[in-house]
Specification:
With 498 residues, this protein is mainly α. It has a single domain, classed as Sodium/glucose cotransporter (Up-down Bundle). The protein is 78% helix and 0% strand. It has 20 helices and no strands. Helix 5 packs antiparallel against helix 13, helix 8 packs across helix 13 and helix 15 packs across helix 16. The N and C termini lie far apart (53 Å).
């Protein structure tokens, strides 16, 4: 690796740590400050933070790799993601921002679920927290796999060393500054990703005479646009589009809506966030498409399709620019890992320790426990990530489905279903999570295949969870007066500010 690349990477690490130190001095004096930024995050930071924490290493590695391997059918995933993110801003963000404050000023998603049905409803809080810690530990490992692959492929550094370097920097600024540090670093990382995903495909495209030549070389390995979009079965199309359903249940994304400073700022955040997302997704798909064409035209060997962005950064750019592009991958990886670590830590601290522990911990102790939680989840995720043959997109898809099915229907019902009950909520979480796990791991088909080979597990998981919630709520007793009151107050406040 060239010295210029190390300089770029080193500067990036220093900036992230400096932001962590700044946030440490301004936001960590309280639990709300450490875990939610005091609900004072600007719409600009909210938008890019939500986008960057969502579009992790799979945006610069997994999605281009999918386009590189299978071709234009990956566009269906992109459409599903864009539609889901837009629906999340329109349907979830305004009411969740108001409701989490009205319902006991909840700072975590499990706490909101509990407050939605009365503050003594510990069962749902513990259930939700366990699901969050379990799936986020797996989800975090996907980011660490991406970090290890990056250091091994680009820097010629041992995979395990790269994994722990990535982990060390992320844990450092997350420990220091909490939510504010994570949000501010996400903003910077989102800007870096935006530039990188425009620059790489545009520069790579200059090696061709036009779109026709790119298409000609690309279709030597992948189906044409018409064949790629038309050859999929209905179930395959549904599976790809269903990625969008996951947005309603992703704690590390919707917590941004809880932290934005005002419901009035959500419109601006939506416009910024969706514009950023559209450009970056198109850039990721273009990187994969131009990548397969470039490889076929110039006879380059690519051992791992998920490293095509890295290959371009090394062969097309000056080492100083190459270092910036590699920093963009680190930015994508770290933005998501830090968000996941913080949400996992908040669940361990606020939803497990506070509920199951003896006595009420003081503010200082709660923040300290939160930091210990960050380290604990990080270490377990690192152990899971030691297998460098893991597919980034595969790990992300499993965790994404788990959250989407377990929490997505419940979040929507909490915000829109007046007669939702505590038992129905718990049943929805458990049924969604179990369905996803069964779909992924039970070898019930021929040759030991699982049901996920037929349809993406979020589809049956989301359906089962939704049906379960409605059936149990219909059979259960009416919700409490407190829950009805908070629901009505939320509707009033949202309508007032709309």
């Amino acid at each position: 690796m060239d010295h210029s690349q190390w300089i770029s990477i080193g500067l990036y690490f220093l900036v992230m740590l400096a932001i962590g130190l700044f946030a440490y001095r301004t936001s960590t004096s309280s639990v709300s400050g450490y875990l939610l930024g005091g609900r004072k995050v600007s719409p600009q930071v909210t938008a890019l933070s939500a986008g960057a924490s969502d579009m992790s290493g799979w945006m610069l590695m997994g999605l281009p790799g999918a386009m590189f391997l299978v071709g234009f059918e990956t566009i269906y995933i992109a459409i599903g993601l864009l539609a889901g993110a837009l629906a999340n801003y329109l349907i979830v963000a305004p009411k969740l921002r108001v409701y989490t404050e009205v319902a006991g000023d909840a700072v975590t998603l499990p706490e909101f679920f509990a407050n939605r049905f009365g503050k003594d409803k510990h069962a749902i809080r513990i259930t939700a927290a366990v699901i969050i810690v379990m799936f986020f530990t797996v989800y975090t490992s996907a980011g660490l796999v991406a970090g290890g692959k990056l250091f091994e492929s680009a820097f010629n550094v041992d995979y395990t060393i790269g994994l722990f370097v990535t982990l060390g920097v992320v844990v450092s600024y997350t420990l220091l500054g909490g939510f504010l540090a994570v949000s501010m670093t996400d903003f910077v990382q989102g800007c870096i990703m935006f530039v990188a995903l425009i620059l790489v495909p545009v520069v790579a495209f200059q090696s061709f005479t036009g779109v026709d030549e790119v298409n000609a070389f690309a279709t030597q390995s992948i189906p044409t646009l018409t064949e790629g979009l038309g050859s999929l079965s209905l179930l395959a199309i549904i599976s790809s589009l269903a990625w969008g359903l996951g947005y309603f249940g992703q704690p590390h994304i919707i917590v941004r809506f809880m932290a934005i400073r005002s419901i009035k700022d959500i419109g601006m955040a939506r416009n910024i966030g969706m514009s950023w997302m559209f450009v970056t997704i198109v850039g990721a798909l273009a990187t994969g498409l131009v990548g397969i064409a470039y490889v076929n035209k110039f006879g380059i060997s690519v051992n791992d399709a998920e490293t095509i962005f890295i290959v371009f950064s090394e062969i097309l750019f000056h080492p100083l620019i190459s270092g910036f592009l590699l920093a963009a991958i680190l930015a994508a990886i770290m933005s998501t890992i830090s968000s996941q670590l913080l949400v996992s830590s908040s669940s361990l601290t606020e939803d497990l320790y506070r509920v199951l522990g003896s006595g009420e911990p003081d503010t200082s102790r709660s923040v300290t426990i939160g930091r210990v939680g960050v380290i604990a989840v990080a270490l377990v995720a690192a152990l899971l990530a030691l297998d460098k043959n893991s597919s980034i997109l595969s790990i992300v898809s499993n965790a994404w489905a788990g959250f989407g099915a377990a929490f997505g229907p419940l979040v929507l019902c909490c915000l829109y279903k007046r007669n939702l009950t505590h038992r129905a909520a718990i049943a929805g979480i458990i049924s969604g999570a179990i369905t996803v796990l069964a779909w992924i791991y039970l070898p019930v088909l021929e040759d030991g295949k699982t049901l996920s080979s037929l349809v993406y597990e979020i589809v049956p998981g989301f359906i089962v969870s939704t049906v379960t919630i409605f059936v149990v709520a219909a059979l259960d007793a009416a919700p409490s007066k407190e829950a009805k009151r908070d629901f009505a107050e939320t509707q009033r406040l949202v309508n007032q500010h709309s």
